[in-house]
Amino acid sequence: MKPREKLQINWPRNLESWELIAVILGTGTKGQNVFQVARKASKVIASKQDRVTLDDLLTVKWIWKVKGMQIISGFELARRHYIPDEVSIQSSADVVSQVWEYRAKQQEYLLTLTLDGAGKLINKRVITIWILDESLAHPREIFTWAIADRAHSMILVHNHPSWNVRPSSADMRTTNRICEVWKLVGIQVRDHVIIWKNDHYSFRENALI
Description:
By secondary structure, this protein is of the alpha+beta class. It has helices at residues 3-8, 17-25, 34-48, 54-57, 65-81, 92-98, 139-148, 169-185; strands at 109-115, 121-129, 153-159, 188-196, 199-202.
């Protein structure tokens, strides 16, 4: 089913990010269909997150200025009218609501949610994409952004591309390693949440943090 058809039957939350971009772009160009262009733009956006600019999008071949402006304008419209000024993270369900689009990814995504002292969301970022293990989840990469945000605490999130959301031995080792660094850096790791489709597992709620 094509992205526009999904939107017509009110499935916007089931669209991948690149599919939403394809709807915004509308058409591709000679030599590149809209889906190919949208996938390339989605990778740039995933790497830049909330810092993405028009110039970033223009680095994608076959995205012209008008198309880039359409995407940036869509982001700004969403920011003004749909994104709450303050998002409070008090439970694992609150966490899942912020990472909904990653729940059924076929690769493992490791994200962090940085929080202020009142548990308000500061930023959501993708830290790594691939299979989660100790080498890819290096504490340096995780805490760099939290320090930049002047965060009081943070929450780790990653998806399991399988039906099982229980933590693996690698998940446990990685979490323990990061928690050791928290004690040195002073930025608390409040939780580590594993997601998959309509299920999730919270380290905190299972007394593992």
